[in-house]
Amino acid sequence: MITGANIKNSGIEWWARFNSCSEKEWYYLKRSISACFLVLIAGLLSIDGLRAQTPERIASIGEIQRGNNLLSMAIWPEALSAFDNAIILDPSFATAYMKKANLLAKIGRTVEAEQLYAKAIQLNPYSAYIYDSRAKSRMLAQNYKDALSDLQLAVGLNGEDPELRDRLIDDLMLTGNYEDALKQIDSLLMEDFRVGYELEKKALILLLENDADQAIQVISTVISLNPGSAFAHDLLGIGLLLND
Q1: At 84, is the secondary structure helix, strand, or coil?
Q2: What is the pLDDT of residue 52?
Q3: Dihedral angle over CA of 168, 171, 173, 176, nearest 10
Q4: What is the DSSP secondary-structure string of 27-71?
Q5: How many angstroms separate the CA atoms of 60 and 83, rounded?
Q6: Is the pLDDT confidence value at 149 over 70?
Q7: Helix 162-174 crosses helix 144-157 at what angle (to 10 degrees)?
Q8: In this model, does residue 127 exceed pLDDT 60?
Q9: Neighbour tally for 211: CB within 10 Å
Q10: CA neighbor of 219 nearest in space, from 166, 204, 134, 160
């Protein structure tokens, strides 16, 4: 069992060995320290996981699942009640507030939704999922500036998720940040993420910046990949008109 006393005693032992070790011993000591940290982190994560699965949390998760099922059947009042129950059962569960906020945002109760998102973030400020959810709500409300801030935070927390970065591109385009959007698009293209789709976005930005020649080149690539893309053919038509 990991305790504060164990960690303290281990620290004293490592410090004593550090002061007396040779270069070769220091090499192996560094490897041991790395392994020790990995074990410590794994232990702390498992402790947190056990703590999270309280009876209240399990019951709250059950209500969230019930709410999700009701939402899939478009039974919104009962779904809202289920999310309310989830909050009551476990008032410290950020996901419960977020789920209720998502539903309120969909039915136009944006002020209440914002309050619940703020509460969820207060409880879990390191959740990319919550920032992403609030960004979607704000984009629906055409609050693109604040949505952009949320998406930047989400990507900062989970930059490995291409879906998040793709949504960031959409908001960058909507707020006129074309240069940053192009950088993000090029990054996703290097990862072969939805190549045709991202190239269409790139072509659209180039057209908006009156770079018809380069836009036509990009669109031609899209059409070679997906000849049936109606949007790509529309973009090509616009590019040819601008190029006349």
Answers
A1: helix
A2: 57
A3: -120
A4: HHHHHHHHHHHHHHHHHHHHHHHHHH--HHHHHHHHHHHHHHHHH
A5: 8
A6: yes
A7: 150
A8: yes
A9: 16
A10: 204
Q: Pick from 77, 149, 83: which is nearest to 116 by CA?
A: 83
Alpha-carbon span 86 to 165, nearest angstrom: 30
Q: pTM for this structure?
A: 0.76
pLDDT band for position 37 (50/70/90)?
very low
161-165 contacts at long range (C-beta below 8 A, 24 or more positions apart): 161/128, 162/188, 162/191, 162/193, 162/194, 164/128, 164/132
Q: Which residue has the tokens 């969909």?
A: 106
Inter-residue contact 90 to 100 (CB < 8 Å): no
Residue 158: count other Cβ atoms within 10 Å of its Cβ: 17
SS3 of 191, please? Answer: coil
Predicted confidence (pLDDT) per residue in 212-234, tens digit:
999 999 999 999 999 999 999 99
| Residue written as token pair 């619940």 | 116
Q: Which two tokens stand for residue 232?
A: 């790509």
